[in-house]
Amino acid sequence: MAGSRVKLELTRVVQGRSRLGVLKGLGRTGQHSLEVPGCLLHTHVGTVPHLTQDTLHTLSNLPSVTQVTLSNIAEHQEVLEEFKDGFRKFAVWGSGGRIELTVAKFMALQKAVQPDWYQSMADGETWQNNTSRKRVRKSVDRTLAHLDECLLVHQKSQELEGVEIFGVVEGGDILEERVRSARETAKRPVAGFCLDGLQTGSMDRALRTQLITALTKELPEDKPRGFSLPAFIVPHKCSTPGGDGESGSSSEFEKEDLKEAVVTERGCALCFGFDISPDPELAGRAPHAVLGLDEERDMAGETQQNGDLNLDDQTQMTSFEINLKDKSYQDDFRPLVEGCGCYCCKNHQRAYLHHLLVTNELLAGVLLMIHNTAHYQAFFGALREALAIDKLDLLKRRVLRERARQTQ
Q1: What is the mean pLDDT of residues 113-140?
Q2: Model pTM greater than 0.70?
Q3: CB atoms within 10 A of CB 106
Q4: Which end of the chain is more exposed for a tag (fewer CB within 10 A), N or C?
Q5: Same-domain status, 109 and 128
Q6: Mainly resides where (predicted)?
């Protein structure tokens, strides 16, 4: 296999863990790049939920990399092979259902899809707490074997010339297996790494910290690493938020399921503040904050759960969002977030969103998705800025202030 065109150029490393830089050489011709820490643009069968292409591109600072999950496209393999032009020109809704995949079928699908990069086939069904050591060891062995088979096919395939492959690090909650998986995967000619099984809510936070600390020591510094599923990583103690594109932290962190589409489907809006300007007015911009958040919760009579949330329950609201279906918003004529520059916040109020939601209007999903996508991407911009000017601790305090109030 020729040398990888994807290069991670670091401009700053904070505390030896948190990495700021640019992932370059993306795309078939290498003309695209992705700032890190960052996240991929989440899609369902190639389309951002609720948004048309025209509406999507009214948003600024969108990532140049789009995620298309295997479960979305596996049932369309025959059509893609017949179509021959790859997934970029082909996108339909799927009906779901379980599909059996061998390595041969998996690689045939990659040839049909023609992605810019993909993660190798892996056995990741070991995230449950009661998984035996024998099963976890088998998972690591099988994932490494799958990677070797995928690489063999990849190297001989003209259709995949210029496409990058990412190795998957497995190992469940067993440290030795995680380290073995990372060490062996790093020996293979992969462009980057996906840390699988760390995005679930069932794993103990301290254990997750220990695993990530050990993994980052085994993975090369000049290659990207990220989590296999889109998720929002909230900094905790001395960690750094990351995303699908890059996670540079090896310390303790706390993770919420704040994927834009999931929050939108709950009828909620992301509302956490992340502005770190010492004086927002002097900086020439309004404070990116939520007004009266505590009063809103009192009005709604809702109590957020303390401690770890069940991240596998996508209906469960987090403390970083507001539920606009609640009656407390029917007479609330403020924007979703004061200072937010998205179309929704500039032109509509919470009361209007509440009305759209309770009357089941399709426009509710469109407006919420516009705001949640803009807010999510703006957070990663603030994160990169905080790393660049050595204000990460200030950003952490700003983001977690609402959560701290909940747990006091």
Answers
A1: 86
A2: no
A3: 19
A4: C
A5: no
A6: cytoplasm
